[in-house]
Amino acid sequence: MFKIGEFSTIARVSDVLLRHYDELNLFKPHFVDPDNGYRYYIMDQLPTLNRILALRDLGLSLDQIGRLIQDNIGPDEIQGMLKLRQAQIEQDIAAEQARLRRVASRLKQVQQHGTAVQPEVVMKTFPEQHFLSIREPVPYIRQSGWLYYQISNAVHEQQVAGLSHCMAIFHDSTFREKNTDFELGFLLHEPRQVSVSLPQNRQLTVKTLPPVSQALTCVHIGPWAEIHLGFGAIGRWMEAQNLEISGKPRELYLNLVPPEEDENLIVEVQIPVSETSKVEKQ
Questions:
Q1: Least confident of 27-31, 36-40, 133-137, 275-279
Q2: How far apart are CA 265 and CA 178, in angstroms?
Q3: Domains in the chain, please, with CATH?
Q4: Residue 188: pLDDT above 90?
């Protein structure tokens, strides 16, 4: 048998925690010396302690853990619970990392305000274009990459030729992070009729985009979380030239990279514009 200090060393938990669990009748010593009150443990108790610690890391209360231990929850059940919790933690970490990137990009915009370090804005004209696309709401715009991979896999599997760059069109009258009215697809090199089947009886179909007489564009290089820097540059240009938005903003993906290589993303932001009305100028 091991004294509490020895067992603490082997189990990698503090003796304070072992005493606390003993007082709660959650994890009792194998033997307590009646003469001096010393606690003793054996190695066969270690799996039970590990179950308690695992359940605690799942976020369960000590009362809940006590009931589960009394019900003799098996290792397979705990393993399943741990895997579920692991997935939740990984999702939380990814969300917090994305939040940190957004904070950093906003700070960058603050630092760049009033300086000469601004993305170049170019006025362009776009002819009529043919767009193989699907328009549907996405629950959360920052996680819309799944739709790209879905349509990209579909056009590859169905061997669709003649595709140009991937492009997104945002149909909401204001920016929405959730339930975004989002259209995504591929521009075609030349007009033709084609459809691409997607899961759940959905389809990519060809539509004709009308010509755009003037659009302000800006090429953004870097994480998608920082694309607001390009929109901000266009906004400053619009304000200086007395222009207003006259069409749906677009993002033309000049390259598409896996999420882990997001810093190499190249996107051309496109915003159709027109001269501000006289009423608004006053």
A1: 275-279
A2: 23
A3: 2-73 (1.10.1660.10), 121-281 (3.20.80.10)
A4: yes
What 3-state DSSP class applies to 276?
coil
Q: Which amino acid is at 263?
A: E
Tell me the C-alpha distance between 74 and 81, whole Å. 11
Residues 6 or more apart whose CB falls under 8 angstroms from that of 258 comprise: none
Quickly state the pLDDT bin for 116 (edges 50, 70, 90).
Answer: very low
With CA atoms as reference, report the closest residue to 177 among 131, 238, 225, 132.
225
Residue 191, CA distances (Å) to 129, 194, 203 in order: 8, 10, 18
DSSP for 167-236 reads EEEE-SSS--SEEEEEEEEEEESS----EEEETTTEEEEEEEEPPEEEEEEEEEES-GGGTHHHHHHHHH
pLDDT score, position 281? 45
pLDDT for residue 177: 81
Alpha-carbon gap, residue 46 to 43, rounded angstroms: 5
Q: Give the pair of three-digit tokens for residue 222.
A: 């870097």
Q: How far apart are CA 52 and CA 70, in angstroms?
A: 11
* Helical (H) or strand (E) element with 95: helix 75-112
160 in Cβ contact with 175 (< 8 Å): no
Structure tokens at 112: 């760049």
- Write the CA distances from 70 to 51, 54, 64, 140, 209, integer angstroms: 12, 15, 10, 42, 66
Radius of gyration of the chain, Cα coordinates, nearest whole angstrom: 29
Q: End-to-end CA distance of the chain: give it in Å, rounded.
A: 88
**What local confidence, expressed as pLDDT, does residue 108 receive?**
61
Q: Which residues of 40-59 are buried (b: 16+ CB within 10 A; e: fewer)?
A: ebeeebeeebebbbbbeebe
The pLDDT of residue 95 is 63
